[in-house]
Amino acid sequence: QVQLVESGGGLVQPGGSLRLSCAASGFTVSNYPMSWYRQAPGKERELVAVISSAGVSRTDADSVKGRFTISRDNAKNTVYLQMNSLKPEDTAVYYCKTPRLSSWGQGTQVTVSS
Questions:
Q1: Cα–Cα–Cα angle for 100, 71, 52, nearest 5°?
Q2: What pLDDT, in 10s, does the model give residues 4-55?
Q3: Is 42 exposed, middle or buried (0-12, 13-18, 19+ CB in 10 A)?
Q4: How large is the average pLDDT for residues 70-90?
Q5: Looking at residue 108, what DSSP letter applies?
């Protein structure tokens, strides 16, 4: 069964860090581009970062450039999103996505607040 399970979210103070994980099953993450999206309350879902099958990563959202990094552990078949210098506007549900799977997972909630 093809599945993505996001985890690692939580409540963090402004300026803090979190690392989100996206564990894949039923397929190999290194064979597909993998992405992180987020959706804040009342806003549309936006693309945050992508890592290609070749392992080339990029951040798409200007608001997170220099603060967020996407990476992949092929041995664990898991994709990560390292988030540093978090701001209240980073509060959102974060989702992992791949073209291999048409549906969205449950996401993981990130709340940045003092």
A1: 45
A2: 999 999 999 999 999 999 999 999 999 999 999 999 999 999 999 999 999 9
A3: exposed
A4: 97
A5: E
What pLDDT shows up at residue 81?
A: 98
> What is the DSSP code (8-state) at residue 14?
T
> Which pairing describes strands 18-25 and 46-51: parallel, antiparallel, or unpaired?
unpaired
Pairing of strands 108-112, 46-51: unpaired
**103 vs 105: CA distance, rounded Å:** 7
The CA distance from 15 to 85, in Å, is: 4
Q: What is the pLDDT of residue 61?
A: 86
Query: In sequence order, which residues have a C-beta less than 8 Å from that of residue 67 and are 6 or more positions away?
Result: 83, 84, 85, 86
Residues 6+ apart with CB under 8 A from 47: 35, 36, 37, 60, 61
pLDDT at 105: 86
The pair of three-digit structure tokens given for residue 102, joined into one six-digit string: 């048409």
